[in-house]
Structure formats: C-alpha cells, structure tokens
Specification:
Bound molecules: erythose-4-phosphate
Number of helices: 11
Structural class: alpha/beta
Order of helices and strands: EHEHHEHEHEHEHHEHEHH
CATH class: Alpha Beta
Distance between the termini: 47 Å
Shape: globular
Radius of gyration: 19 Å
CATH architecture: Alpha-Beta Barrel
Oligomer: single chain
Strand order of the largest sheet: 1-2-3-4-5-6-7-8
Number of strands: 8
CATH topology: TIM Barrel
CATH superfamily: Aldolase class I
Strand content: 15-25%
Largest sheet: 8 strands, parallel, barrel
Number of domains: 1
Length: 215
C-alpha cells in the first residue's frame, strides 16, 4: 500500500520523506490555510520535496471554473493531482479533466455510489473520508471495503485513497482491505513507527553491549 502524507506543512513533509516511506502528499484548503502562505508557493515547495502525486484542491463550485483552476494547478508541476469535490459540477469537471489529461482526486466521498460515479467520470483517485464518518457514528472503514470490492469487480484504473485518517488502526485496516493508498497525518505516521517494546529492547541491547569486553 502506498502512503501519502496528509499535510501542507513543509517541515513535516521534509522529516517524513527522509524516512523513505512517503509516496505522495494530499492537501486541502484547511491544511493550506494553517500554513499562512500563498497556495501556489506551498504546493510548488511540496513538489520539490516529494517525487509522487501531490493533491491540490480546487476552491470554486462550477465545472467551468474548476476546470480553469485544474488547468492552472496542473501547470505548477507534472505531479500535481487536482482535487475536486464530489458534486454534479465536480463530476463534470473531472470528466473534462480526464479528456485534457489532467489527473484528478475526487474528495469528500462518503458513499460507495459517489465513488462509483467518480470512477466512471474518470477520476484517477477517490478519497473516502473515514474519520469524518466515524465522527458521525458510521463505521468509516466499511465504506473503504465496499469501494475496494466494487473497483475490484470492474476495470477501473481509479485508486482508493483512504482519507481523514485519525489513527494507525485506520491504516492497518486499509492495508488489510487492499486499499491502494492511505493518506496519513504526520502524527499518525509517527504512531505507526513507534512501539514501546522496540524502545525497551533498544535500551536493553545498549546496556548489555556495555558489558561486552571491548579488547
Ligand atoms: C485528504 O484528502 C483529506 O482532505 C483529509 O484527509 C481530511 O481529513 P480530516 O477529516 O481530518 O480533516
């Protein structure tokens, strides 16, 4: 499974990419707003750090303006994937982008039918938001299981990005279900990496090593 980083924070992206496990980055307007910098500048800098798909989101609501945004964003770097919200206008924009060879990630997916329509419109990626479903007392990972099984039944090249990830169990289950990608906040990546028994084991090895005669 590919791991994307779900952040627009350059320091987090740098630190995580040094680990050699980051295949791409997803951003959204809320994540960009936290950085207090120009959108294009942030996206450009992310593209210079991570050599993989970088999602940058449109912020208009009509298909024609979304396509204009998509054209502008896709010129920033060949790795840009334009994130488009799951609406009727969004689907129109996705299908136009497909014709123009612009990659898209349909975001704010909360049902399997939405994912199916996005795939049919030509989305390269769909992003089911599992954490926000959990917050709404619906089991978010059920949605991922459904989408993965639907895409498995037919010949779609659309990849499933498990988004709105809140904890390492989301990532684990995404991998078990065969999702293509999980996009994770930096904090979740760090949680995945750590285990207290690893730390205890290292301390024990290092203290025992001191007992080994060196000459
Ligand atoms: C990624 O594509 C989404 O924008 C992001 O995962 C949303 O996460 P949140 O629900 O924690 O805001």
């Amino acid at each position: 499974m590919k791991i994307f980083l779900d952040t627009a924070n350059i320091e987090e992206i740098r630190k995580a990419s040094e680990l050699g496990v980051v295949d791409g980055v997803t951003t959204n307007p809320s994540l960009i707003a936290k950085e207090g910098r120009r959108f294009e500048d942030v996206v450009k800098e992310i593209c210079s750090i991570v050599d993989g798909p970088i999602s940058a989101e449109t912020v208009t609501e009509m298909a024609d303006t979304m396509v204009e945004e998509a054209v502008r964003l896709s010129k920033i770097h060949p790795n840009i994937v334009v994130k488009i919200p799951m609406t009727a206008e969004g689907l129109k924009a996705v299908s136009e982008c497909r014709k123009r060879g612009i990659k898209t990630n349909v975001t704010l997916i909360f049902s399997a039918n939405q994912a199916l329509l996005a795939a049919k419109a030509g989305a390269n990626y769909v992003s089911p938001f599992v954490g926000r479903l959990d917050d709404n007392t619906e089991y978010g990972m059920d949605l991922v299981e459904r989408i993965v099984s639907i895409f498995h039944n037919y010949v779609y090249d659309t990849e499933v990005i498990v988004a709105s990830v809140r904890n390492p169990i989301h990532v684990l289950e995404a991998a078990q279900m065969g999702a293509d990608i999980a996009t994770v906040p930096y904090s979740v990546l760090m949680q995945m990496l750590k285990h207290p028994l690893t730390d205890i084991g290292i301390q024990k090895f290092l203290s025992d090593w001191k007992k080994v005669p060196k000459e």
